[in-house]
Amino acid sequence: MKSNVANVINISRLLAATALVLASTSASAVQPDTATVAQPARTTVQTAEHISELTLKNGMRIIVNEDHRAPTVAHMVWYRVGSIDERNGTTGVAHALEHMMFKGTKKLAPGEFSRRVAQLGGRENAFTSKDYTAYFQQIEKSRLEKVMALEADRMRNLVVDKNEFAKEIRVIMEERRLRTDDQPVALVHEALNATAFAVAPYRNPVIGWMDDLQHLTAEDVRDWYAQWYAPNNATMVVSGDVDPQQVFKLAQKYFGKYEPMALVRTRPQNEPPQTGPKRVVVKAPAENPYVVLGFKVPGLHDVDKDDDALALEVLSAVLDGYDNARLTAKLVRTDRVANEVGASYSGIARGPVLFMLDGVPAAGTTTEQLEKLLRAEVERIARDGVSEEELKRVKTQLIASQIYKRDSVFGQAMEIGVMEMSGLSYKDIDRLIERLRAVTPQQVQAVAQKYFGDDALTVATLVPLPPDRNKPAPGALPADTLR
Fold first, then answer.
1. I need a labelling partner for 167 at 20 to 30 A (CA). Which of 34, 226, 272, 373 fits?
2. What is the CATH number of the domain that holds 127?
3. For the whole model, what pTM was predicted?
4. Are 235 and 315 in the same domain?
């Protein structure tokens, strides 16, 4: 993924499962204030030739994807909670808990979880996004039960020690400095979101604002854990060389004993209509200027009905979906007015979404000029449309990505988990490809005409400053910071 896209995953790239998004990466930000505790029957549903599903009595869903090409397994537990569910003053708490999940339980000492997985010959990690938090292990298939037992233990028995938390929050603050405060493009995207969204929680960074991190407490993390880490808010995805019935038995053994909890969902924080363009300028030490345009557009909530979201995905691919796509071909290679350009869109989100255009101007071009040139390429499609031949090339890329995705058991698990956490379904995966394949040139032209006016636009511009010679270089982060 290009660096200028800044953690936004296209549906096509998502289906290729080549990114762990922090991005990032779901339908409907509007949830009921309270959710009753579900008590579904314990039934197995064969949903596809190679995918089976079980719901435990406590509400935890188990999805098993069979792939017997190699004796390996990807085991993931997804919690449907992310930074979208946070409140002002405690931003970053979802990510902070993710760190603390490796710092010990009633049975395990801090760091012992990771040591045990390594001793089993596996690897493990976790990630937090706006919409969800997930934990995974990749392991030889005979070791699945042992990592499942470890994961089940920390669903209910986590110990958030105040001394461990005091150390870890410093690591998180350093992570923010390294990955955001000292990265000018990351600062620009953070400012873009904070400006584009007046109310929606997507205005806050996943890692949290520094002031909130400085005031976050171990009690805040314990409360978050108690509120959200429950079996009826979790989905297990197991992909690889496994027998579904055996996986279901293990899930019942280790997770079925936990009681469900009443989940109090976040109140709706719907974004009010935007009535004019918004602009923000970020001044930071950097080598080059940079500009990013974000347009508020619809997301993907129903694969069979949301035609515009699918057309926007194809529009993104037309602009920046392959090596010689329109933006690069025109602005970088032919006109040489930009060193780098991009377009990105992902409609899979629980909250509102943006279609983004961005770029680094070449010498002699200003960010204001590049902004107009980027918009002109969308306007050209709105005016002249796209050809069947161009769409055929784009769709070939989409289909190829789906095929390549199936080479990875972890990629398949990622794909299933993201779809489920986002309010869609793994059953929609193949249907999504079919629907993208059916997008017409007229639909692409129609969305280019409809969604790219000034009233939907937010522009964030980087004004480069000379480097601060007196500022010390950031120190290296501990290995477990890279979760």
1. 226
2. 3.30.830.10
3. 0.88
4. no
Tokens read off for 434: 């079919």
DSSP state of 424: S
Shared-domain flag, residues 219 and 301? no
Average pLDDT taken over every residue of the chain: 88
The residue whose two tokens read 């290679």 is 333
Q: What is the pLDDT of residues 205-214, one digit of tens each?
A: 999 999 999 9
Q: Are residues 236 and 144 in the same domain?
A: yes
Whether residue 13 has pLDDT greater than 70: no
Q: Give yes or no: residues 203 and 81 share one domain.
A: yes
Tokens of 406: 């199936």
Alpha carbon distance 248, 252 (integer Å): 6
- Asked if 234 and 134 count as a contact pair (C-beta separation under 8 A), the reply is no
Where helices occur in 58-138 by DSSP H, the ranges are 93-100, 112-119
Question: What are the tens digits of pLDDT across the range 31-55?
Answer: 222 232 333 344 445 455 789 999 9
- Regarding whether 218 and 108 lie in a shared domain, the answer is yes
Number of neighbouring beta carbons within 10 Å of residue 170:
11
Identify whether 336 is part of a domain.
yes
483 domain residue, yes or no: no
Residue position matching structure tokens 């934990």: 135
pLDDT score, position 357: 98
Q: Could you list the active site residues?
A: 98
Over the stretch 334-385, which tens digit does the pLDDT of each residue have? Answer: 999 999 999 999 999 999 999 999 999 999 999 999 999 999 999 999 999 9
Domain that holds residue 400: 278-465
C-beta of residue 415 within 8 angstroms of C-beta of residue 14? yes
Rounded CA separation 172/417 (Å): 25
107 with 238, same domain?
Answer: yes
Task: Go through 324-361 and write b for each residue having 16 or more CB atoms within 10 A of its CB, e for each that does not.
Answer: ebbbbebbbeeeebbbbbbbbbbbbbbbbbbbbbbbbb
